[in-house]
Amino acid sequence: MKSKLTLLILLVAVFISCKKTTNVDVTLSTSGKLTYRLTDDAGKGLANVKVSLFDRTDTYYSNYNILLETRLTDPNGLADFGDLNPNNYLLVADSAKVNNVAYLVQEYVQVRTGAVKAKETKVTDYSGTFALTVRSYNNNQPLKNIGVIMIPSNKFNYASTTATNLKVADYSGVTNDAGLITFKIPSAKQYSVYLYNTVTNASYNYNNSVSVQKDATVNYLMTIYQQ
């Protein structure tokens, strides 16, 4: 009888233990993560670049971007924005330099729930081609060996000498036999184009407002008067 009682007690204990449950809190993520890396042509990260994160707001009357936060890239060119609500964000890097030339990078990046968006961008992809032809005002013939300087518009001074303009230029070169010269320049950046005599350094002509869009080619004509 005693053994039967002991067995019954054991069966009751097993039954109770089987019914025992453990409460586990499960939290579902409603956010995603975003990292953004900027590199040069060789894939090297660009450090200390200011990257701004914007949220786009649409109203009945207008659309505009609201600045949410700003980060500086680390030594590997990485900016970590951490947790973000799912959305399509605008990223703007306005201080990225490659070969001492400043580029303006603007792109939309989508963040999804529960995912890490690791976006990597080569800064020099944000550029276009500026093709300049120089002709004679006298007879419309193409002119070779004409000096051409591409100067950021905010650094250009029409009263400066050719030597001074060369010091602040992003690009320089001379026209070929067809009077042509091409430059791959940052997109959405205003430039002044300065023409000069490569022998005397005397200025010929200038235009202080040219730009190109990303992946686009702009064909431009300038004429100069030669005595």
Brief sketch in words of this structure:
With 227 residues, the protein is mainly beta. The chain has two helices and 14 strands; from the N terminus they run H-E-E-E-E-E-E-E-E-E-H-E-E-E-E-E.
Output the helix-strand order: HEEEEEEEEEHEEEEE
- Count of individual helical segments: 2
**What is the arithmetic mean of pLDDT?**
88
Rg (C-alpha, Å) = 31 Å
Structure description:
This protein has 227 residues and is mainly beta. The chain contains 2 helices and 14 strands. It has helices at 2-19, 162-168; strands spanning 32-39, 50-58, 63-72, 78-84, 87-98, 101-111, 116-122, 127-136, 146-152, 171-174, 180-186, 191-197, 203-210, 217-224. The strands form 4 sheets. It has a 4-stranded antiparallel β-sheet, with no helix packed on it. Strands 10-9-12-13 form a 4-stranded antiparallel β-sheet, covered by helices on one side. A 3-stranded mixed β-sheet has the order 4-1-7, with no helix packed on it.
